[in-house]
């Protein structure tokens, strides 16, 4: 089968090589699937560079998110021929940028007939991350305010939609007019162009000086550190990711002074049963039209290195998906 493989670390366009390899052999509790579509994510670019905490040993195939057809299975729930979406065994080098890959049954979920392959491929990281962050960790209730950093990216765009669907007032931070327009289209009530204005000042103005109840931060670094000053009394700061390349430093004095909390958000800490409950709740919002696709572009399998480089360079709005 064909697979995009990383044999040395560097920029995606330089290190991804198209190779022929043997199809992966599933162990018990794993599914071998024919990949129908794979979503491109910033962690995939970080893996190419060797700077992601879960980067596999060389050589490996990146690609965390996929939808595909089951070819081999030892569980009745996912029989051969079933269409599933989920997260690959990328940590073992079996990512989704290949014609076939492996998924643990614990990370595989059924796909509604009404959901397109591209949308399904991009569903099982961004939306669960947003849901777990805002609902399970942040305890968001209708009427509260949420500041979303990196709001035009995959997890950020999902968070804008989830927060909006649950009745929050959403303040979205993005870079440039196009990304800001995309955030408005997703349902953001206030959009802040971080290239044109100071985010902290804009949040204070938009909230009458009160600050926001939650900060959803998949960016980290200096942006995350500054956003801690945007919290209202009793606010919750959600540590989601580090698209900037580093985690933010926490301002303990500020958090204590505002009776605010810093909460880690890790999807992998939840059980299969909890994920199934969340998955059903999110699909219900999809069926109601209250959550919609974050996919803004699709590319062919052969275009993955170039498309991933565009993502790594920060020029992508929403999610890019490769069809195989």
Descriptive notes:
The protein is α/β, with parallel strands linked by helices and 324 residues long. 30% of the residues lie in helices and 27% in strands. It has helices spanning 12-15, 42-49, 117-121, 126-137, 154-165, 177-186, 199-206, 221-227, 252-257, 272-287, 304-312, and strands at 2-6, 16-20, 30-40, 65-72, 83-87, 100-104, 108-110, 145-148, 169-174, 190-193, 212-217, 231-239, 261-264, 295-300, 319-323. The strands form 3 sheets. Strands 3, 4, 5, 6, 7, 14 and 15 form a 7-stranded mixed sheet that branches. It has a 6-stranded parallel sheet with strand order 10-9-8-11-12-13, with helices on both faces. Strands 1-2 form a two-stranded antiparallel ribbon. Strand 12, helix 9 and strand 13 form a beta-alpha-beta unit. Helix 2 crosses helix 11 (304-312), helix 4 (126-137) packs across helix 5 (154-165) and helix 4 packs across helix 10 (272-287). It is globular. The model has no long low-confidence stretch (mean pLDDT 96).
